[in-house]
Amino acid sequence: MPPWRGVIREFREFLPPTEEESIVTLLEGGTPLIRSVRLRDWINREIELYLKYEGCNPTGSFKDRGMTLAVSQALREGITAVICASTGNTSASASAYAARAGLRAFVLIPEGQIALGKLSQAIMHGAEVLQVQGNFDEALAIVKEVARGYPVALVNSINPYRLEGQQTAAFEICDQLGDAPTYQSLPVGNAGNITAYWKGYRRYREAGRTSGLPILLGFQAEGAAPIVRGHVVEHPETVATAIRIGNPASWQQAVAARDESGGVIDMVSDDQILEAYQLIAGLEGIFCEPASASSVAGVIKLNKAGRFRRGDRIVCTLTGNGLKDLDCALRVSRRPATISPTTEAVLKHLRF
Ligand code: F0G
Fold it and tell me: Mind listing the pLDDT tens digit for each residue in 183-238?
C-alpha cells in the first residue's frame, strides 16, 4: 500500500480543490477503526461495536481533518494569520497547522477551563494564546467579530472548509467497514462534527460508495446540553471541558442532521462520561479524553433503554487523545503504591 498522504490528497474527489503548492498537511486522517470485544461484551453481546480512534491524528484530535483544509485555504488566499476560540483541541490543531504553514496563530481559550496538554500544544507551536475570563461561547463571539474586521482567517468550525475536511472521518469509516454502520455515535459540543459526519455519509451514499445511511446519535454533557434542553445554557459546566459549550454554532445544522437520519441528540451525566472513559481504557486499551467518552456513555445509556437490535453495527467516535488531559485521568484513578526496592515488597503487592 502506498503511504498515507493526508485527507486532502486521499479524498480529493470529494473535497473542494486545493492546488498542490498550497496544501498544508501533517498527514492527518487514516485513523484506526477498532473492533471492540471486551467493551462490547460488557455493554451487549448482540451488537457490533467499533471505536474510531481520532486521538491518533497528528495533534491528537479530529480537528486536524478540518484544519488542513482551513489553513491551506488561508494560505491560498494570502492571509498571514489565523484565529480561533477553543475549548482546547481546535487551538492545538490551529497552532500546529499555522506553524507548519508559517502563519501567525491567535487563540482564545476560557481561562482555567482547558486541559493542560492542549494549552501546552498551542504554546509549543508558537501561538499567541489569550486566556479569556469567560467561557467558550463568549470567546467565539469575540473572534467572529475580529475576523470580520481584520485580515485574519477564522478557523473555527463555522469556517466551511473545516466541516468539509471533517467529513473524511465518515468516508474512512465506510471504507473500513465496507458500508455505512447502523448507528454513528458522537460527542456534541459546538455541533460542527456531527454536521460534518452527516454531510460525509450523505456524500458517500450519493456517490454509490455505500448502500445506506447511519442513524446519528449525538451526546452532550448534562451541564452543557443546550440542544437537548432547547435553550442556550448561560453557564455550561462539565468535567468534559472539550464540550463545555452553551450555545453551539452549528445548532440548527446538527438538529437537521439528527432529524434527517432519524436519530437522537441526548445527554449523559459527568458520572456516566467518567465511567465510559475508564471502561474504554480498562477494557480496550484505548485512552481517550473525557469528552470523547460521551459517545460510548450515550450508547450505554440507550442500550439500557433497549434501543439496539441483534447485529446492529455501532461506531463510536473517540474524538481526542487521553494524554491531553492527564489531570482528569489521575483524579479518577487509584494512585500507584510506593514500595521499598525489594523483591519481597513487590511480591507482597502482586498477591499471587
Ligand atoms: N470531542 C472533542 C475532544 C472536542 O474537542 C470537541 C470540540 C468535540 C468532541 C465536539 O465537537 O464541537 O464539533 O461538536 N472541541 C472544540 C474545540 C469546541 O474548541 O476544540 P463539535
Answer: 999 999 999 999 999 999 999 999 999 999 999 999 999 999 999 999 999 999 99
Q: From ligand 1's centre to the CA of 240, what distance in Å?
A: 10
What is the reported pLDDT for 352? 83
User: Residue type for 269, please?
Assistant: S
Length of the chain in terms of residues written = 352
The minimum-distance atom of ligand 1 relative to the CA of 92 is: 20
Whether pLDDT at 1 is above 90: no
In this structure, the number of other CB atoms found within 10 A of the CB of residue 172 comes to 21
Query: For 128, what's the count of Cα atoms within 13 Å in the CB-facing half-sphere?
Result: 7
Q: What percent of the chain has pLDDT over 70?
A: 100
**Mean of pLDDT values over 7-25:** 97
Express the helix, strand and coil content of the chain in percent, nearest 5 each.
Answer: 45, 15, 35
Q: How many angstroms separate the CA atoms of 309 and 15, rounded?
A: 35
**Per-residue model confidence as pLDDT tens digits over 168-191:** 999 999 999 999 999 999 999 999
Ramachandran angles phi, psi of 183, nearest 5°: -130, 145
Residue 173: name the closest of 298, 337, 2, 295 by CA: 295
| Ligand 1 pocket at CB < 6 A | 61, 63, 86-90, 157, 187-193, 242-243, 289, 291-292, 319-320
Nearest atom (ligand 1) to Cα of 189: 14
Predicted TM-score (pTM) of the model is 0.97
